[in-house]
Amino acid sequence: MVLSELKRLYQITAVQLRYGLDELLPEDPRLKLPKAMRKSLFWLRNEHPEKPLGERLRLALQELGPVWIKFGQMMSTRRDLFPPHIADQLALLQDQVASFDGRLAKDQMEKALGGPLETWFNDFDEVPLASASIAQVHTATLKETGKEVVLKVIRPDILPVIKADITLMYRMAGLLEKVLPDARRLRPVEVVREYEKTLLDELNLMREAANGIQLRRNFEDSDMLYVPEVYTDLSRENLLVMERIYGIQVSDIDALVANGTDMKLLSENAVTIFFTQVFRDSFFHADMHPGNIFVARENPENPQWIALDCGIVGSLNREDKRYLAENLLAFFNRDYRKVAELHVDSGWVPEDTNIDEFECAIRTVCEPIFEKPLAEISFGHVLLNLFNTARRFNMEVQPQLVLLQKTLLYVEGLGRQLYPQLDLWDTAKPFLEDWMSRQVGPQAVIDGVKTRAPFWAEKLPELPELLYDSLRQGNALNQRIDKLYDNFMESRRYQGQARFYFGIGATLVVCSAILFSNHIETYSAISAAMGVTFWLLGWRACRK
């Protein structure tokens, strides 16, 4: 590690110790030495003993910067994995991160637009509406139309902080791969690379604008999801201008209940929206923490979700979607043999894995879980237990699915927070079965013909010419093959002659040596000369 990386590592450790986060370490005999060392570091005592542990954790993550704040946002959605006193504090990271000066934000915006804000906007508010880890948001109205908008601006000088932490994460991931052989199957370097890509993508607000436009188009006629309009002519790489929305933040359960929201339908719609994005559109919002999700106040009996902050999106190719759907359906149907086979077929585990042993291990993990009512089963727990079991079978992490797994945990966490009895399995299974039937059934054939029909219609007039060209190319190919075969046979004949000449020459040279040893010098010289002659003939045959 270079000096700057060591300095950052020390800063991370120091922040954790100053906030007393060593209390999060479990009681384990192997941790006795680290805990004893902690007590000896008297210059890094817990400076906030009066604050609850959850608040200390939030403050530490906030002080460490955007990389760690994002991690805290993800943890805040998993209320089934973390106690309320921690989850409640981490939820504040979603949109209550310490803001920076509004005048500095205005200067950033004017620099991006190339002129004073008053040229395009009225009623700009220097007090931020919300502040997050990467950017903060201010309100204004469009001067031309009077529509209310929000202006999102990137925090100044944030890129060096992110790069420093990512560099350190690369170092630590590489060290893990070298020191711990078992860590190689987790592919930590590739996971860090994927995380780096998502963070850096968030710094380009024009990418977020494009993502928002795409997501809005995908759900243009939907009453389940609304995506605000983006004003691309006023947006820049570090500035995003979009429609201002008024809704209820999804984490405000009391307000949702007071508005008469159908919480069961709202949570089920969240699952439907997620699977629609993944399997229908291959384009899904991958940052669905409560700070980015609102619910419209209108029509509470048929509530509509509102999605903000499309900086992180994910996509899957056809093979990934097929693999994922088959795996989930196999889980729903408790077909553990199919799960094991799919893991091998998709390359998650090595080809030489014993399917019978793998199936037995999966059954051992999943059967006790499925004995509970489906509504009480946490998909997050199933995944974690399955991955821990598959570790024995050298299961590798698939970086292209990490974002999807994180988003699925977000969705489940949100759904359970809104409606604790949410049956994610019952909601998702019909959707997946319908999707699979359209992929492999008669409808799939019809859809395929419809999709390719314009291409076939375009190429149909060219068919005779293409057929003639194919026949001509086939004839030319046959002629080349015949010529190559003739050349090969001629080469083999010359090689046979060469071997014959070399053999005769070697025999004559040996005879020459025998005659010379018996003092028959005349015949010895003749035999040697003839042997050399035959060698020359063999060499000449090789060159043909």
From TrEMBL:
Its EC number is 2.7.-.-. ATP binds at residues 129-137, 152. Keywords: ATP-binding, Cell inner membrane, Cell membrane, Kinase, Membrane, Nucleotide-binding, Transferase, Transmembrane, Transmembrane helix, Ubiquinone, Ubiquinone biosynthesis. The chain crosses the membrane at residues 498-516. GO terms for biological process: regulation of ubiquinone biosynthetic process; ubiquinone biosynthetic process. It is an enzyme of class 2 (transferase). One of its GO terms (cellular component) is plasma membrane. It is found in: Cell membrane. InterPro entries: ABC1_dom, Kinase-like_dom_sf, UbiB, UbiB_bact, UbiB_kinase. The active site is at 287 (proton acceptor). Is probably a protein kinase regulator of UbiI activity which is involved in aerobic coenzyme Q (ubiquinone) biosynthesis. Belongs to the protein kinase superfamily. ADCK protein kinase family. This is Probable protein kinase UbiB.
